[in-house]
């Protein structure tokens, strides 16, 4: 039996809140307090969970369409809040990525300065800028690759949701057809019952007519024999 839309909505919302709490812990905790690879790992995990949360918000938008208008108001407010929380942590994730890239750039520059074989500063400013620019470009490429993967994941999730929506409609159509068939069977059973009752009535009437004619014939024969 299909669950009511409100039950599905609340189930998806509970999953969303669980994921968004995990994202908050990573972005406001690990990603801020850690550095280096530990920070990058926290940001990558947060990105994966944000993609999952995005898919759940899309499912919430689908489920709210099946909720009756009379009770839809509070669920619409909850959907808006979920979407706002998702956008908030997406922005925070992007900001932390930018901070991590700047930190990597500054760290690379500092290491180059510390390990330079030119203690008198003869290395040109242009070379240092080119090295920093290359580090920044590398970070930008990695961010673009992550964005591309996120977009592909989002498109794949949307395709899955569309497929699930189509399957749900097919199931609902099949259920309607079964209900119609049940009603037709009930009507046919009622009609057959009436026909059977009518047949029994006709048999009783035919039997009564037969008995009447037999008695009539007996009476006629009796009178004829008595007159002779």
Description of the molecule:
The chain contains 4 helices and no strands. With 228 residues, the protein is mainly alpha-helical. Helix 1 runs antiparallel to helix 2 and helix 1 runs parallel beside helix 3. The longest helix has 103 residues. The protein starts with a helix and ends with a helix. 12% of the residues are buried. Belongs to the VTI1 family.
Features:
228 residues; mainly alpha; 4 helices; 89% helix; transport; v-SNARE_N_sf; SNARE binding; transmembrane; SNARE
Calculate Rg over CA atoms: 40 Å
Number of helices: 4
In one word, what is the shape? rod-shaped
Spans of at least 5 consecutive residues whose pLDDT stays below 50 are 115-122
Summarize the structure.
With 228 residues, this protein is mainly α.
Walk me through the topology:
Blueprint lengths: L4 H29 L2 H29 L7 H43 L10 H103 L1
